[in-house]
Each structure stands twice: as C-alpha cells, then as structure tokens.
Design goal:
single chain, alpha/beta, Rossmann fold, 2 domains, five-stranded parallel β-sheet, three-stranded mixed β-sheet, about 40% helix, about 15% strand
C-alpha cells in the first residue's frame, strides 16, 4: 500500500515505473506536479522523453514564459501545441464534465505527436491527492491510455513539493495551477472574450503580489479568491480602489472578495452526487 511507503520509496517506485515505460511524452503545464514529473523522467530516460506544452485561451498567459524557462533549465525536449477546445460546442456550454472534453482534445493532439515520433507512452502529472477531488478528465485519460506515474507511485502534493525543493526546481513553492475554464460556474457559456477577462484580472492581482489567485467569473460579477493569509490586504483603501477601478475597466460591473479565500475546487461546492 502506498500509505505504508516512505517518500523515498515512492520516488524509487516512480523511477522504476518510468524506466519500465522506456520512453514517455509528458503533458507539461509548468506547474508543480508536471515539472517534477518531467525532471525525474528526464533524469531516468534522458532523450527518451519530451514535454508537450499546450496553449489556448484557457491557459493563463502569465505562465507561458515561465514554463518555457523551466524546460530549458531541466534540459528536456519540448513541443508547443495549440489546442482548440473552444471549437467544441459541448465544451463551450460548460457542463459539469467539461474537463473531460478539454482532456480529450489535449491528449488527442499529444497522441498524434507521440505516434509520429515513435513514443508509445503518454503521462500526466496527476498525483495521489487528486483522487479526492471531482476530476471528470480522468475518464479521458483512461480512454486515451494516459498513465499518471505520480499517482501510481503514491506521491502526494506535499511530498512532490519537498522533493522539488531538494532538486532546486523553481516550482517547489509555486501556486497550484488550473485552466481558466475552471473559473466559470457550470452551465455558463465559456468564450474567448470571457477567458481573456479572467486572465487580465488574475494578471493584475499577480502583479500586485497576491498568491493562489482565482478570479471566479459569473456573468457581470467577478469573485476574487486569494491566499487566506492575504485577504487583509483588501482593507487597504488605496489598494482596494486601484483593484476596483482596473477590474471595472476590464468589463465587470460587480467586484467581490471571497472571505474564505482560495481553496481547491470551490466551483465544485455546488455539486452533489445527483449532479455528477
């Protein structure tokens, strides 16, 4: 059982899994998990691994250059692709299993690259903790035969951060990433214009030093989540007014602050067993 293994034993298991696979294509976002996975895969497999970074209006714009730099530091090969999930009407309509359609598009594109280069194995950065969240994209991973070595090895987010720190990876204390489509309540149509508005708000907050940012879009309202330890900053009138002016210029009528702060999967709090 993974729970009975030490983190060092889990790392050895991860390396063994990757070695047995022989060659892998890593779905890379520049986040904590996929960066760690790419680093270990590159250490184990050298040139028998390459990363694929997918860009689209759903990918936070501030992350692109950071992701490119990370791959350069690791020394791995990289392919950049453009996914077109916004051309899928079902994805646009934002059903509760929206993530399934996004992942299907992503790994269809990655599989085409993998086959072209003779790489039979696709892997993603899902970790052991991800089992507890509502993740409809997992169905797409199974259909596309994508493996999750971090999950298979039993590695948790905390352990991945600890190993990343020891490996001097710049992502060891990085905020959790998620595609911008996760900022919309299920059922509200997703468009490139709305995604760009969310992206602009989050970039603004990031430039002001906020962490763990989520700009949750709902029609003409934006609900801002930040690290709970930073909520007090909004009591600074000058800063609050600066944010308010900028966000209204982006196009929102109402600007609200979530007093619970950032927590993973807050948009799923409205779901119940009947919904999913």
């Amino acid at each position: 059982m993974q729970e009975d293994m030490t983190k060092d034993e889990k790392l050895l298991k991860l390396k063994s899994i990757l070695k047995d696979m022989g060659h892998v294509v890593v779905a890379f976002s520049g986040g904590v998990d996929s960066t760690f996975l790419l680093k270990v895969a590159h250490d184990v497999l050298n040139d028998n691994v390459f990363a694929v970074l997918a860009t689209s209006p759903t990918y936070p714009s501030r992350e692109y250059s950071k992701a490119m730099e990370i791959v350069r530091q690791i020394g791995a090969k990289l392919r950049v692709i453009r996914t077109r999930e916004l051309e899928d009407i079902t994805f646009n309509n934002n059903p509760v299993n929206r993530c399934y359609y996004c992942k299907s598009e992503l790994f269809q594109k990655i599989s085409e690259l993998a086959k072209k280069d003779g790489f039979g194995n696709m892997v993603d950065g899902s970790n052991y903790d991800d089992r507890s969240d509502y993740r409809p994209g997992m169905k797409a991973l199974k259909e596309k035969k994508v493996r999750s070595p971090l999950m298979e090895a039993g590695l948790t987010k905390k352990e991945i951060r600890e190993f990343s720190k020891g490996m001097n990876l710049p992502t060891w204390e990085k905020d959790e990433l998620a595609c911008l489509s996760s900022r919309f309540p299920y059922g509200e149509k997703i468009t490139a214009e709305k995604l760009n508005m969310v992206d602009m708000v989050e970039n603004l907050l990031s430039d002001l030093g906020f962490r763990n940012i989520r700009a949750r879009h709902s029609k003409n309202t934006i609900r801002i989540e930040v690290d709970p330890g930073q909520i007090y900053k909004f009591f600074d009138r000058d800063l609050r007014n600066r944010i308010l002016r900028s966000v209204k210029q982006i196009g929102y009528t109402y600007v609200t602050i979530d007093l619970e702060g950032y927590r993973r999967g807050s948009m799923n709090e409205v779901l119940n067993s009947n919904t999913i």
